[in-house]
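User: Can you recover a sequence for this backbone? Please restate the input before giving your answer.

Assistant: Of course. Working from this structure:
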């Protein structure tokens, strides 16, 4: 595939040019941004089993990481503070390293079946406070640390993206079997996947075993 090159004639390079393409912001879109976790935001967070957290390092390299757990896994500690448990992963620690370098984070909370989402921006700190971690145990296993976010902005995001994508519509669900397994995708793009189907199946099975052993 040939590399795409952007025509500089059509690049938007300043805010005035950008805003000239759009109508004025609706008043409600401005008013909805709050500095604290209100009643409805608190309830939304208590229902959410999934969020994405966006971070950047000092050089501006961005990362977005999914976080999922039983409903209500994120704890609202007060109207300006929430805590996210860090569960076992692949130990790349991209999000955590970024937070140490640059503590500004953005969160997107999602509830299955809801087209609205909740956006939270703030300042994150990593903590190993044993009392806080004990309250986040699952299957008697406490997380090694938690991400505590001091909230600066909280607001509901409208349903347009989810409705356009038909994300929750079973009629638009795709068959996962139409693409290779996660292990095969990684190997295809790195060292090369085995050509023997039985060996590939064993590697896929090993990943499933690892999921069950290390989920919490």
């Amino acid at each position: 595939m040939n590399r795409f090159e952007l025509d500089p004639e059509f690049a938007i390079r300043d805010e005035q040019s950008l805003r000239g393409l759009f109508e004025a912001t609706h008043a409600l879109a401005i008013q909805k941004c709050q500095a604290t976790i209100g009643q409805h935001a608190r309830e939304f967070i208590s229902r959410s089993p999934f969020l994405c957290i966006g971070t950047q390092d000092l050089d501006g390299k961005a990362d977005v990481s999914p976080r999922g757990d039983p409903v209500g896994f994120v704890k609202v500690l007060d109207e300006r503070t929430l805590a996210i448990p860090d569960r076992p992963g692949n130990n790349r620690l991209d999000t955590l390293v970024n937070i140490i370098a640059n503590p500004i984070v953005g969160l997107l909370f999602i509830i299955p079946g809801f087209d609205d989402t909740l956006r939270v921006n703030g300042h994150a700190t990593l903590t190993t406070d044993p009392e806080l971690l004990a309250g986040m145990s699952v299957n008697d296993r406490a997380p090694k640390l938690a991400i505590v976010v001091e909230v600066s902005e909280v607001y509901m995001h409208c349903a347009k993206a989810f409705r356009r994508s038909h994300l929750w519509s079973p009629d638009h669900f795709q068959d996962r079997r139409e693409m290779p397994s996660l292990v095969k995708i990684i190997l295809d793009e790195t060292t090369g996947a085995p050509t023997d189907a039985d060996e590939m199946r064993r590697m896929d099975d090993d990943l499933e075993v690892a999921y069950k052993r290390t989920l919490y």
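That completes the design. The chain has eight helices and seven strands.
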